[in-house]
Predict the 3D structure of the following.
Amino acid sequence: MTAGEGSARAYEAFRRSRPELFRNEAGGFEIVSGAAAIRAARRQARVRAAERLARGSRARYWWARLLGVVRRERVGVVSADPFLYHLRDPVRFPDGTPGLYNRIVPPPDATPGIVVLPLLGPENRVVLIEHYRHATREWHWEAVRGFGEPGASGDDNVARELGEELGARPGETIPLGEVHPDTGLLAHRVELFAARVGSLGEPQTSEGIRSAITVSIAEAEEMVGKGAITDGFTIALLYRARLAGLFDTGTGRQEHEAT
């Protein structure tokens, strides 16, 4: 069995296991099937790739087209692991043009991830962790977050992540809805929570966390305004928490450095 055949079989199996991720809506990007439709999508993708690479040069254009024939675009499951599937869907765009469209989706047995805004003490001071992220190769100020465990409730996932990342226990968990982190690429759905905590332990340095701070909501929003907080999950969570009326006007700032 070739790599392309394996990708196609894995794709069809995934379609059967997660049909909701393959439904077509009128006026949207139609996921197509059938050998002829897939060939047309692949062929048009090669043309578009050649046009991008050519930059006005006919010689580069035809060289890119030739390479596209030799290095055939994979369609279906491009890669898969326990955390995500990279799909390249054969589609028909709203104007009727065929092509390929990439997206990242959760694996078949995945449950929604969670993001938690810890609120410390009666003043509801916001707890932020300084987390190193491999994707950006930078440190980011963030709320607590992680993957959901299959079969676990939202409260269970919140308690686990707070314990792992901050050595903290939630006294109250407050659901704040959900968010789709990047609707242009990711099919993931993430649940948002606030959690009241009475104390903090040591940050989990083994996961790339080097410190935690507590700030007032005014300071947290100032960090967003000045670009010190750029993580989309954290910005969405701060906004949802404010809309839910969870914040008072506590001031001051304390640091809990990792050792």
